[in-house]
TrEMBL record:
GO biological process per UniProt: rejection of self pollen
First-listed, main subcellular location of the protein, grouped into a coarse class: secreted
Any one GO cellular component localisation term in the record: extracellular region
InterPro entries according to UniProt: Self-incomp_S1
Record-given protein name: S-protein homolog
Organism per entry: Erythranthe guttata (Yellow monkey flower)
């Protein structure tokens, strides 16, 4: 049983569970490092069960979310980044590759050259993983 995040009890009453049981909590960070005065980064992130919706990030803005990895190791979150006419879709977290997020953080940064990654927060050694399409 994985318990993490927000659990709807009713339409009014909600309970926030902050601990993962029998599994590990991970955090995904999405950061816009595109030039100031450029078009915003539109990030749409989701999993099979959770759609985080579209996020419009101006230069320098970010958002993040935390979740409990599944004990059966089938967690997958993906994002579609759009910056003007450029775009890129990719997995931001998969249980199979969770070792890449070795400090329990998956840090993704959009810059003019592409999508950068680091497995720690704050980032220490960003690596370009994807070009823009």
């Amino acid at each position: 049983l994985t318990i993490c995040g927000e659990l709807d009890l009713t339409t009014v009453d909600k309970i926030i569970i902050t601990r993962c049981i029998l599994t590990t909590k991970y955090t995904v960070y999405i950061v816009n490092s595109l030039p100031r005065n450029s078009l915003p980064l539109i990030a749409h992130c989701a999993s099979k069960n959770d759609d985080l919706g579209n996020r419009t990030l101006q230069a320098g803005q970010s958002f993040n979310w935390s979740f409990c990895d599944s004990y059966i190791e089938n967690t997958l979150f993906f994002c579609n980044f759009r910056w003007g006419s450029k775009h890129r879709a990719f997995n931001v977290y998969t249980s199979k590759h969770r070792a890449d997020c070795f400090k329990k953080a998956c840090y993704w940064e959009a810059d003019p050259e592409g999508i950068l990654f680091d497995g720690v927060y704050p980032p220490q050694a960003l690596v370009k993983l994807y070009d823009w399409n």
